[in-house]
Structures are given as structure tokens and as C-alpha cells.
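Example protein was shown:

_____
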Amino acid sequence: MDLEFLGAFKEDWKPVSKPALIAWLVFFGLFLLHALTSKSGFLIIDYVFLPIHESGHLLFGYFGSMIGTWGGTLMQLLVPFALTVYFAYERHTAGTAFCAFFFFENFLNISVYMADARRQELQLVTVGSGEDVMHDWFVIFSSLGVLERDTTIAAIVRVVGWVGMLAAVGWLIYRARSSKPPTPLPPWLRRPAQRHT
């Protein structure tokens, strides 16, 4: 089997300039502050992932009702994960960090949904009429026999999300500091300066 395409993963990462790194760190810092101070548990980016979550129910629902229930969360994680892999393949440092960061941010959103499995106080969104709306994590945890552990599992998932987001930022800093600046052309390949007379 020809796996030549995997050779891209051995190439150098694209460098991140110091001003770009500072801008990214300000962005991630403000977002983390937003996440820390959010009282509802839902962040502004969650509105981007909501239609992705709902599309997962429709897509995976073709394979059965239970996989369809899981499908919302699967799609919510699959999209940023696939984008992370794509940017890693392209060796795009900032793009990889950004997508990995929001892959793990989804764990925060999922943990809020999980913690509500028994209480079922969240306002649910669904595709269609909404008459048969089900709480995904009530159904999933009930089928697994762990419904009474909903808040414990949610707390673990939340910690994974925070650790992952911080790791993505740490990785960006590491890559930016260890990346090599573009190699300048040797003098004999440079264009001579134009003289204006």
C-alpha cells in the first residue's frame, strides 16, 4: 500500500511570527476568560457548532436510532478534529492550534449537556417539529446504565476540555518558539538592487 501522502507529516511546520503569536495569544486568552466567566455554560462559539451537532443526528441517524443519538456529539467533535488533521497535514501551525483548541472547547459544551441528563432543564434544539425531542445524554447514559453518574462524567469531560485547550495554546507557543525562520536566499541568487538614475 502506497502511503506517500503521509510524508507531508515529516515536513517542517510553517513558522509563526512574533506579532502573529502575540495576536493569537490575546485571542485565546480572551476566549478562555469568556469561558471562565460564562454563567450559563454556553459560549458564543457554541452557536456555530449547534447546527453541526444537529446535522450529525440526521447523518448518523441513517445507521440506526442509537447511533443517531450519538451522532450529534460525534459530528460536533469530528468536524474540528478533521480540520485539525487537515491543517496538521498542511503543516499550518496556527490553523492546527486553532482547530485543536476548538475541538477541545466542544468538550465544555458537551459536559453541560451531559450534566443535565437527569435534570433535563436545558432548552433543547432539534431538527423538525420538535414533538419527539429527546435529551441525547439522558438516552445515552440510560442505555449505558450510568445515568446516576451524569455530573461526575460531565466534570471529567469538562477537565479534558480545559486541559486540551490549554495544551493547544502551549503547543502553539512551543511551535512558534522552535520554528525556524525562512532561510534567506544565498547572495548569488538574490536580485541585484535596482539603481534609479
In short: The radius of gyration is 22 Å. Residues 13-48+93-126+135-179 form one domain. The mean pLDDT is 87. The CA atoms of residues 124 and 147 lie 18 Å apart.
